[in-house]
């Protein structure tokens, strides 16, 4: 039975009417779905380009991080017999292990009895997929699945409206800019408040705030509002040791730098780029846990040694076919080298690297 269906619709309507962003609508959708008796966890996935769908909101971020790694077993866009209709795409592990072996092992490991997908479509446009995880019996009823489908359609419409608002004439664009500016001010205020409470500098507080938003699968502005309100949940979240996820990339080639930075951000790292050693020297005052440095840049050896003395694990890249790592370097990689190998080295050395689900 759908709990407080009208309340959920009201909250969605208020979010959209107040010019809430797409991520707000997705988060609200997942929070509403886990109130259904048959649902234990919910997540929203969207596809951008040829990549596998990515999780933008989830009530259990760890579970959906693991789910993201096994999506190769199924195409969420083709799991329904009728376009736009919900479907139970996984049930009864013993009978599905031949069809979706990795998904079956994932379900067994997490005690999942059924996995349902609800296409998020609005105005005939596919926006994403709502995934519902069920661990108990009986699983979702038809009424619960219908309620989730209705909420997903409304959330999808809001996400489309959010994407299109900047293209609308008259007041829409100024309102969008105002909303974004207001959110940015909130984030700046929260970073300052967090820095004062924890006795750290602004960049460290900002990085902690961003990690909190990513870990909780929620908009950055929402995490900022929690910090400003200093709720018990915020105090608990920020009371432990700060997980510094920074990685410095010092590379003259803009294409290589952009590629590495993009891949490292996909891994959850906070990337700081610089084209010269001179531009990167500010990092010595607050050394990042890991730095990737082009060894042939002027001053690179001395800079790497200085960072290593401050506790940074230094990865150097060199076009010289042979040789020893420079003083203080943890790893020496010989060029040409695939960016994936550099990312693997960062993941291996970085203390804040997330655990990866085995293939």
Automatic annotation (TrEMBL):
SUPFAM superfamilies: CheY-like, GAF domain-like. The keyword Transcription applies. Keywords: Kinase, Transcription, Transcription regulation, Transferase. Residues 29-148 form the GAF domain. It holds the Pfam family GAF. GO terms for molecular function: kinase activity. It comes from the Bacteria. InterPro entries: CheY-like_superfamily, GAF, GAF-like_dom_sf, WH-like_DNA-bd_sf. This is GAF domain-containing protein. It comes from Kutzneria buriramensis.
